[in-house]
Amino acid sequence: MSQINITPMVDVMLVLLIIFMVAAPMLTQGVNVDLPDANAPQIRQQIEPLVISIKKNGDVFMQNHQVDIMQVAPRVAAMRKAKPNLPVFIRGDAKTAYGNVARIMGDLEAAGIKQISLVTEPQH
């Protein structure tokens, strides 16, 4: 009586598991910031959003690239001309000054970007 040898399949599955475990943390967008907790529904997006991150020391990042706070609104406006439905998410550190977040939101509003989402962590 012959049997199927499943050892190669198990080896392949373990290799795939390790690859996904290593790659999963790299899929997070933006810069590592300590997000505030909030009781808000999760947003479902079909299009990859533009993520603006504000660290607690006031440094501003668009995706993973550091930019000057004065350059944020013009860059986002230029990106929105190419992709009018591009969602804009702001990830502000919980310990950053409220003025930093408000300034960026005001600059974006003045540039004509009306729909901005604030990213938070779910409350526990």
- What is the averaged pLDDT score? 81
Strand order, sheet with most strands: 4-3-2-5-6
Number of strands: 7
Helix and strand string, N-terminal first?
HEEEEHEHEE
Total domains: 1
Oligomer: single chain
> What is the CATH domain class?
Alpha Beta
Helical percentage: 25-40%
**Uncertain residue segments:** none
Please describe the biggest sheet, giving its number of strands, its sense, and whether it closes into a barrel. 5 strands, mixed
Tell me which CATH architecture applies here. Answer: 2-Layer Sandwich
- The end-to-end distance, rounded to whole angstroms, is 56 Å
Radius of gyration: 20 Å
Q: What structural class do helix, strand and pairing data support?
A: alpha/beta
Taken as a percent bin, the fraction of beta residues is 15-25%
The 3D shape can be described as elongated
Would you tell me which CATH topology applies? Answer: Nucleotidyltransferase, domain 5
